[in-house]
Design goal:
The protein is mostly helical. The protein is built from 11 helices and no strands. It has helices at residues 2-15, 18-24, 30-49, 55-58, 61-94, 101-105, 108-120, 124-141, 153-161, 165-182, 190-204. Helix 3 packs across helix 5 (61-94), helix 8 (124-141) packs antiparallel against helix 10 (165-182) and helix 8 packs parallel to helix 11. It is elongated.
């Protein structure tokens, strides 16, 4: 009995020591609190979905942590694409592709020639711009739209829809790529440019037939 009392006294002495008290009284970090709450919430949801499996006891802390990390990564990925899509739509609706009277005064053939020069210099962003403007002026020549410096790609898209819905959809796709290449959001690689070039030239080659 004396040994039990001695052990209890010794334990109380240890618990009352400053180092142990300071350690046990350290506040939890915000992240650890959030993580614990998230783990408990996920475990509760799994328990509700699969009550017979007793997922709370089956899924240990590390597994729940992995689930949370994967969920966060998915949320960040979704958020990235949402922001990117909104940015693309904003530029599509607000930014005129033609920036000077010289660009609109050139023929579409002149822009194609300039695009080839820029391509040879491996300046694919610049080549992309000239090819897109060539396409725009080609549609203008066919009277599918009316090219003006102050017009946005959204306005051109609306005009094209009245003439050819398929061409309008393709134009929208090409305009998104053009915006990213022109305004610095995307460094155009050769492979991307070649694909863009093929799609544009499908239209421009019709003029030579």
């Amino acid at each position: 009995m004396d040994n039990v009392d001695d052990a209890r006294d010794e334990l109380e002495k240890i618990l009352n020591e400053t180092e142990y008290t300071n350690y046990s009284d350290q506040p939890s970090t915000i992240f650890s609190i959030w993580l614990e709450k998230a783990k408990n919430w996920i475990a509760d949801q799994l328990d509700h979905l699969f009550p017979a499996l007793k997922t709370t006891s089956m899924l240990a802390g590390p597994i729940l942590t992995i689930i949370i990390v994967i969920t966060i990564l998915l949320m960040v990925t979704v958020l990235f694409f949402v922001i990117r899509n909104r940015s693309r739509k904003r530029k599509f609706r607000e930014t005129p592709p033609l920036q000077s009277t010289q660009e609109i005064n050139w023929s579409y053939q002149m822009h194609v020639t300039e695009a080839m020069k820029q391509e040879d210099l491996e300046k694919f962003s610049s080549a992309t711009r000239h090819l897109f403007i060539a396409l725009l002026l080609y549609f203008h020549e066919k009277e599918w739209l009316e090219a003006r410096i102050w017009k946005t790609n959204w306005e051109y898209y609306e005009e094209l829809k009245k003439v050819n819905q398929q061409s309008a959809d393709q134009f929208q796709h090409l305009a998104y790529f053009f915006d990213e290449a022109t305004y610095g959001e995307r460094e155009v690689q050769k492979e991307d440019y070649v694909q863009f070039q093929k799609e544009v030239m499908k239209y421009l080659s019709e003029a030579d037939e």
